[in-house]
Each structure stands twice: as C-alpha cells, then as structure tokens.
Amino acid sequence: MNSRRWKSLPAAIALLLLAGTAAAQAPGGGGMQNPGGGGMQPPAGAPSQGAPGAQGAPGAGQPGMEPGGSEQGMMRQMVDHDFVKKTLENNDVQVRLSQMAEQKAASPDVKQFSQQMVTIHNQLNQQLAPVAKHLDVSQPKKPSKKEKKQLAKLQALSGPAFESAYLQAMANEQEQSLKEFKDESKASQNPALQQTARQDEAVLSQHFAILKKIAQAHNVPIEAKGKK
Fold first, then answer.
1. Which of 40, 47, 148, 206 has the most CB atoms lying inside 10 A of its own CB?
2. pLDDT for 25-76, tens place per residue?
3. Which residue range forms the structural domain that includes residue 142?
4. pTM, whole model, 2 decimals?
5. 227 within domain boundaries
6. Is position 1 within any domain?
C-alpha cells in the first residue's frame, strides 16, 4: 500500500468525524430532543436533504397517535415505535462493538473511528430518549443472545484479525441502520420523525463512507448484508 496515502488517512478521517460530531452538537442540531428541529445536522459538505417538516413547519410536532386514537394514528405509532426500537438496538450493538475496539484495536485510524462511534451513537441514544419515552420504547439494558455471541467471537481475536472482524461487523450494523432510517423517512406519516430520519440518514451515510475508506486502507473486504 502507498505509505503516503496510509499516513494521510487518519487525519482525513478525523476531519470528517469531528465535523459530523460538531455539527450534531451545534445549536439547532439537537436531533430528536426537538422532533421538529430536523435531527442531527449533516457534516460540512453533506448534500441538502430538503425541508419538509423542518423546524417551525406545520405539523412538525410530537410523534404519536392522532386525536381520538384513530386507526391511522395507531398505524403511525406502530411504524414509529418499530423504527425507534430498532434504532436503539442498533446503537447498542455499535457502542458495545466500538467500546471493545477502543481497547483492542492497534491501528490509530481504527481506534479513532471506534472512539467516535461510541460518542456519536451514545449521543443519538440521548437524542432519541424523549421520543422513545413517548412511544414507550426502552433502551436495551443488556446484549441479546446474538450480540453476546458476536462480542465473544471478537473478544477471542487480536491484531489485524480483530480489526478486520470489527470493521465487517460495523459495516453490517451501519448498513442496517441506514436501511431503517431510509424506511422511516418513506413510511412514517409524522413530519417530524420523517424529517429527522431523512437528515440523520445523511450523517450516517458519512460514517459508513468513512468506515469503507478505513476498510479499504486495511484491505478488509466489506460485504455488508444487514441483519437477518
């Protein structure tokens, strides 16, 4: 591999990640803490995703059932409940995987990426907390059986083998997360959650692009297929 390209990669990754984190924490980028606020803001340079349901737009209120508990309101609530539940579960997996990578990864770029993933997905959990409470969705308190098996497998690895398995596992999780956000942006009839999903998808896409660059630098094949 070209050594000059390798040395410059971590700096480029850091710039993209820090830009995304700073934008998400900037005033007005409070995500689902304010469902009408449009979610996490895309990193600098990310394409605009349109403005339906943006802050101050009519109908950009709290998610939930329509007045009178109509069938349409109940269906909306089921769609949003499923989205929030799956997102919290996916965040939990990525945080646990990345916490392990913080300790076990030897390559600076992989370690830096794992540290940022812990920060970003914990932040997303905090942003989801109000709407999760409204929809009666609980944050996962412990790993699922599938997740325990995955973590045990990675725990037994070290060096390049661990980093390869970590990057591949994160690719699967991030692909699944992107799918959920895309589905929500199309299926939800709540303008606030729909806009949040659309804008946060841009941020998640940036993370996935960074992961693929790191994997390419380490000659790790990414064949993300999502969760079964």
1. 40
2. 433 344 433 333 444 444 444 434 333 333 322 233 344 434 445 666 677 7
3. 72-228
4. 0.69
5. yes
6. no
